[in-house]
Design brief:
Blueprint: H1 2-5, E1 18-29, E2 32-40, E3 47-51, E4 57-61, E5 65-71, E6 74-79, E7 88-91
């Protein structure tokens, strides 16, 4: 955070505020990669830790949704708090 915003006091941020990034970042979307130049503040929530089978660890809000494979032809969006061991995440 410090690299992007310096010494900003996160408690001073207001819902609906947009913060420019010092360095644009690339994020994956369903349409492909997108370069992001700012972030939108939509509040603060407690985070939960998700550890993937490859050892990667992700922190997200409990209501963050992941696209999970149900069977060969079906997938559904599942909130992080409802993920179970063994579920195959298709999209983060």
């Amino acid at each position: 955070i410090k690299e992007q915003f310096g010494d900003i006091d996160i408690k001073s941020l207001v819902d609906g505020q947009t913060l420019p990034l010092k360095t644009p970042i690339t994020v994956k979307t369903f349409e492909g990669n997108e370069v992001v130049y700012s972030i939108y503040i939509n509040g603060f929530s407690d985070l939960t830790l998700l550890e993937l089978s490859n050892g990667e660890k992700l922190k997200q809000t409990k209501n963050h949704k992941y696209l999970v494979k149900i069977d060969d032809s079906t997938a559904k969006w599942v909130e992080a708090k409802d993920l179970e061991a063994g579920m195959k995440i298709l999209a983060i």
